[in-house]
């Protein structure tokens, strides 16, 4: 991959140096046969046989016919390589068999004497093909002889990668137009004990001239590069048909055919008669390749493949796995050995080839399960043993490392399914249309959400229904106890989330709740359901909880902590030898630590950290004083916090509580700003009295630069080290949002979440409201300086906020919604929200004015940019699908975010006529969500919920009506209201029927109740119940499918027969003058 990136960089630099008119490619045409008296040796050494030469052109400019491109072997020649007895068959024979074609021969363009040789030749080949094909998109068939086939492979790999990285589109377009490749004598893989480099060196010796010893050595030492080329080509050639000669090579791939060529390597590509058996074979395969799918069909399919993979992918897909420590030394090797030191067989090793579908790795919290899972999953030995289980099938491997301390997507069913599907389908793009057939041949993005549980589950099972005989899948799922039912979280009440702790501090005193317990039951059922198929194996790990004991009873199992003592002793010996070389009785001390750990690897690691930090004299005292468990009020974590200086402990508590309270793991910058609180300190207010009392207003006076923000991140990282005892860590990523602060282990998070822990240390702790207003301030301050590192607004290809910036805005609004009802400092709260609006408008205008179009666009500077700067930022939410909601100002977004008291105050201070007009405008948002698309933030944070899909709080109705809103002044108000009712809240509607069965039914029922309240409010304030509304009655889109109904009739259609709305129906009956039926429903 590094070589490919270097090639792409060179191509881009080269193209920038050359003008479009000054092409380095000199195209020639040849129409005469080489005389029979020509000398092969002469042609082999002719210096001018480089680049592209058109041998036959039977096509006019356009896309008809086919381009046939032949590439010669090492030391070959673009004519002589294909020449015998006066006949150059690509020119003299192919012209009659493929009259509507263009035949191109290509000659190697430079010396072959470095590790860049293949990439250099590939660069030249691609550049020549791009130039010669500048006016056509007809399909291409490549024919490669010997090492010329490797040049073709390198060129196609480079072209495919250029499409992915977007660095050189002209070259990338060669790739999707290639429908087939014929390899004649090209080496593709190792042979027996010979490496691929040695095989290539052997093939090179069959060239027209003997290569030098230096060149052969170069080939032999290039195995890694050649293997990378081979593997990458196998990935990108799924839709390219490949033909190889049996005698010269072996090859594994999807569209691969082999055939026998009974001749030597040189004569393999020399034919002087149309009846030659070899030539007839070539004709057969060119015919077959050229009759395959058209390039535009392949390109369209490949485009959709990539769109689906992009939709499945999420940024944190490998974060948890990457953060897990690598196995120390050889401490995990025992899991993949047939016998251990005590001659016991590893049950995991036996399971790999056995028919049993589920293997459970269980253990105490911190016993090293994740490290062991990572080692087992990544080991080549695991794959080798699983290949035996497949019995010749196609083995697919995937891993999921669940992370309760991460975002929604890292601990949910959606995350599991997306991760597994992405890992399966990335190397097997041919299966994407099998998994998602309904998403081909239609618009993208789809009208409905793509990553639903139903859609993802159907895709998963479609794969194995389609090809259950060939596909064999092994999935490693780590941390089942960290799984949560995120998609049904709104079913639960507040008390269902309350943690209950084991009285005897079992399993390190970890808490549980109804929600957590039912989550564990849910993942247990999912694993057993998936494991019911004999084509799927699952290796899972978790704590030894009763729910998992029941779910996996009867399956193979390994209890990690019963095998860990030797590994822990090895680890301790390595650490002590490094810290205290020559320590007396080291072996005995290590055994003692291992014994005291009771198989808890994390405890042992933290304990040895504390031991080596002290002196040699206190080593024994320190060890004897350590608690035997991690969590709880008397555990090792508590000791680590208590060992911090007392003056740190208040701030320590606040940092932990902020991370726990955050909507999602906060970035270093957001956390640093939040920790400071929202009020400016006295000194800052004295130095800048005009800046006010908020930190955000003082920040406006600062000219931030990148170094300032790096300093803030560095300082916060040091505070995490000095104040948090190593229990919080920072993920790698860009400073503007990627450096998230997370707990170093799930047990650390559960420890920090215990109230009794902090009650024992600090009598008075920050309240939830104090934490939320600090987080609100932190997000706003982060937004203010976001542009220092990256413009928060993108102006191309469409004008919108970046998802990363909008996610900060959304989080700020979520914190505001939490405290809108009971914030003690209501003035400070309102001023913060005003600053949020101001900060975003400033960021909006600044980014637009700094934007420089990709091309000279005077219209941008004269009209477009000024017009956009006058727009309000709230109307430019980044969307994954659909158009952003139309919002004229911040109050519209505040209504959708349910900031009831803030909106009430802002309306109250307006002049009466302005207040009435604004209330009338906001009424639309209260009776109907304003957009149907989905935010682009969903791909960043799986728990992100769009503001424009829920009905706002019903209390807004009274506020707006009191402010002068009048439904009689809005003739379209009923249309908007009933459009919402029919689309989202009517049981007769297909969308509603599906949603009522989905994960969000609890939230939908709340929305339904709010919609009924909106209808009632409109009627109470003068809306006409007999107003007529035209509605669609069927599926057709013609005029006859529409009918007219009154508002009250539509209400009855939606609500009659619903017992939970019996009271509301009676009230609506009184408002409209109708008499209810005996059954409580309206009659016609």
From TrEMBL:
Which residue ranges have biased composition labelled Low complexity? 30-41
Q: Does the keyword Coiled coil apply?
A: no
Q: What residue spans carry the Basic and acidic residues bias annotation?
A: 18-29
Can you tell which superkingdom this protein's organism belongs to?
Eukaryota
Q: Where is the DUF7791 domain?
A: 644-787
Q: Does the keyword Repeat apply?
A: yes
Give the start-end ranges of region Disordered: 1-42
> Which keywords, in A-to-Z order, does the entry hold?
Repeat
User: Where does the Nephrocystin 3-like N-terminal domain start and stop, copy by copy?
Assistant: 331-484
Protein name, as recorded: NACHT domain-containing protein
